[in-house]
Structure formats: C-alpha cells, structure tokens
Amino acid sequence: MTMSALGEPCVLLKLGEIVLKGKNRELFERRLISNIRDALQTVDIKVDVRKRHGVIAIFLPQGATAEQADAVARRVADVPGLIWIHQAWRVAKDPDSVLKAALELAGESEEAKRGARFAVRSRRRDKRFPMTSNELDRFVGGAINDEYHLPVDLKNPELTIFIEVDRDEVFVFTGGIPGQGGLPVGSSGRALVLMSGGIDSPVAAYRMMRRGLHVDFLHFSGIPFTTSESIYKAYALVRKLDRFQGRSRLWVVPFGKAQQSIRNSGQDRLAVIAQRRLMLKTAEEVAHRIRASALITGDALGQVSSQTLANITAQDNAVELPILRPLVGWDKTEIMAEARRLGTLEISELPDEDCCSLLAPKRAETRAKIEDLKQIERRLDAEELCVQLADSIQEYTL
Ligand code: ATP
Ligand code: MG
C-alpha cells in the first residue's frame, strides 16, 4: 500500500480474549499496550500507540513509508493478546474523506485490477456519525461500483473494504494479518521453563507465554561430560522465542556430575525419572530465587516412558510448585507443526549431545514407585544437591 495525502498511515490492532474480561480489562489493556511499545523499540520508526474504544491504534508519522508500516505490523503480529493487525488509513470523520480513502484503497488493490467481487463493511463505534453503517456501505459501495465497475458480492467477496468509525477518526483498510491471540505476556505472572534442546519444550514455552506468562528458561547441560553444543542450541531457541515476550533469560546448570551420581546409585531403570525429579527440584530452587511461581515442561502424555501417568505423578510429587504441561494432550505431529511455524524446529533438529543420552537404560521403568525414588534421593542427599546445583548456575541474558 502506498501512503497518500488522503489520510495518515496507521496500524489498527484488534484485541483477543481481553475483550471478555470484566473489571480487570483495563489492567490487561495497559499491559498489552506496554508490551506493544516495548516490542516496537526494535523497529526503526517513532510511533504513537493509542488506546481506542475496543481497539488499539498505532499512529505512524506523516510520510512514513509502506515498508515502515509493514515492519510495524509484522513486529506487533508477534505480541500475544492481539487477533488481527490491519494496516489502515486514519481519515477525517466525514463521509467524503472516507469515500476518497476507500476509492483509492480499492483502486490500487490487486483484486480490483483483476475485477474482483467486492463488499464494503462498515461499523460505527461512535454512533454520532451522520450515516448509519448500512448507509455508509451503500454510499461507498455504490461509488466503487461506478468508478471501477467491480461486481458487489456481500456473501463471499474477494475484496473487502473495512470502514470503522471511531471517536476521533475513521479507519479504512482492506486486509490484515492474524495475530498470536492469547493474553498479554506478564498478565498471568512469571514461570520457569525446563528447556532441553528438543522439539517440545520451546513449543511448551510459547504456549504458556501466549497464556500471559513471562518465562525464564532453564537448561541442564551434561557438562563436564558433554560438549557445550546443547547450550548453544538452548540459547538459539531462546533467541528465536524472545520476539514473543522480550527480556528473555537463559539459565544453565552444569548437570553432568549429578547425573553420574544418579548412575552410580545402581538403579538403572529408575535413572531417568530420578534425574527428572532432580531437575525439577533444582528448577524449583531456581524458581524461588527468581520469583517464578510455576514450572513448565514439554511433556506429552505417553510420548516416552518418562511421560506415563505413573511417571508424571512421580514427577509432580518431587516439587510443590505447579508443573504446567501445555502439550500434555498433543500428538508429536501437532507439536512438530507448531515448532515449524514458530521457527524452532530447525534449531531443535540440529544434532547435540543431550545430557539425557548419558543415562538411557535398556529398559526404562514406566511405573516408578515414589518410595524407591525417595530412597535414591536420600542416598544422594538430593535436597542439598539441588541447592548446590542452583548455586552453580550460569546466566545468559539476551
Ligand atoms: P523435548 O523435545 O522438549 O526435549 P522430549 O520429547 O525429548 O522433549 P524428554 O526428554 O522426556 O522429552 O523431556 C521431557 C521434558 O523434560 C522436556 O520437554 C523438558 O521440559 C524437560 N527436560 C528434559 N531434558 C532437559 C534438559 N536437559 N534441560 C532442561 N529441561 C529438560
Ligand atoms: Mg528431550
């Protein structure tokens, strides 16, 4: 779209689930606007983010280019809490200004050049406008029809001109891109993601950011018995996901020696669950230190032997914080499709030496007994060990 003297360029944002909020809606909206402002700091243009009735408008400076408007729209499309992002013109609040903008928008659209079927859809958030929505539809639709000889199709148009009458201005636009949906990051609090280098945990992190959690990332590396590759992968994954929340931190625990102690405990079949419990206990210690109030994992019921119902129970038993498992009901193919969409799949698929491969037994226990696990932990002095592990943590801030 080219910018014109007919109006000012702007980007119009439609809110998702926030609109269902009652008394708290203000709070969610304020959080969302602040997240949008933060996200736009990476875009090279000064903008003005304004709350309107039920929508948010981003005003661009007069003379902003189409590329700049595009960059703003694409950036906010990653901010959870929005369902639609429209590049629009903001025009004066009178029927003739609206008509001029609509004619120009329709005229320069690819659809119009092919003689597409079109419709005009108007709504009034301010009922004081001199025309009703229906009158505006017919006024603008008739003019487009006269000017470009396009056929009207109200049921199944190929081109739709949207007109939204607001308190101080009218927004006119044709298309839009879908947003992430969900709730503004931070509105649900803070949590800590257990982040392997695998496919599932980055997707789990994204799903919970989308439900309003700001997350930190915790990775257990097999160091000193493995290379640092898994750390690079975790870091690359965190970088990939940072666009949804900003200010991401990756914490890395050197876990190799603790794993060795678990292996030396001689309980081969329980090693994986014992290790997972130790990770969770350490994660809980870290969560307290950074004031996170939940843990997040990429577990999916039945995906591997550590994720049977009995073994999930044994893991929940290890900590007091809630363990959120957003992927619990997902199939691997669904998780992979989402990872591809997010851009994390190609990173997750890079080879690495996961710390878990150090102790994969021939036959893993699918029904671990909590008493047996507690016995291993007493011998390891797990309570003390997880404090030491938390002390040895390294921080990587983006
Ligand atoms: P993923 O693809 O996320 O690695 P997975 O299918 O490999 O999952 P598991 O290895 O059983 O499954 O891990 C289950 C969950 O435990 C992971 O989703 C992650 O939350 C956590 N986890 C496993 N290994 C690590 C690790 N090295 N560091 C941090 N968290 C881990
Ligand atoms: Mg894994």
TrEMBL record:
It is found in: Cytoplasm. InterPro entries: Rossmann-like_a/b/a_fold, ThiI_AANH, ThiI_fer, ThiI_N, THUMP_dom, THUMP_ThiI, tRNA_STrfase, tRNA_sulfurtransferase_ThiI. Its EC number is 2.8.1.4. Keywords: ATP-binding, Cytoplasm, Nucleotide-binding, RNA-binding, Thiamine biosynthesis, Transferase, tRNA-binding. It comes from the Bacteria. It catalyses: [ThiS sulfur-carrier protein]-C-terminal Gly-Gly-AMP + S-sulfanyl-L-cysteinyl-[cysteine desulfurase] + AH2 = [ThiS sulfur-carrier protein]-C-terminal-Gly-aminoethanethioate + L-cysteinyl-[cysteine desulfurase] + A + AMP + 2 H(+); [ThiI sulfur-carrier protein]-S-sulfanyl-L-cysteine + a uridine in tRNA + 2 reduced [2Fe-2S]-[ferredoxin] + ATP + H(+) = [ThiI sulfur-carrier protein]-L-cysteine + a 4-thiouridine in tRNA + 2 oxidized [2Fe-2S]-[ferredoxin] + AMP + diphosphate. It comes from Nonomuraea maritima. Catalyzes the ATP-dependent transfer of a sulfur to tRNA to produce 4-thiouridine in position 8 of tRNAs, which functions as a near-UV photosensor. Also catalyzes the transfer of sulfur to the sulfur carrier protein ThiS, forming ThiS-thiocarboxylate. This is a step in the synthesis of thiazole, in the thiamine biosynthesis pathway. The sulfur is donated as persulfide by IscS. ATP binds at residues 194-195, 219-220, 276, 298, 307. Pfam families: ThiI, ThiI_fer, THUMP. PROSITE patterns: THUMP (PS51165). This is Probable tRNA sulfurtransferase. Residues 70-176 form the THUMP domain. NCBIfam families: tRNA uracil 4-sulfurtransferase ThiI (TIGR00342). PANTHER family: TRNA SULFURTRANSFERASE.
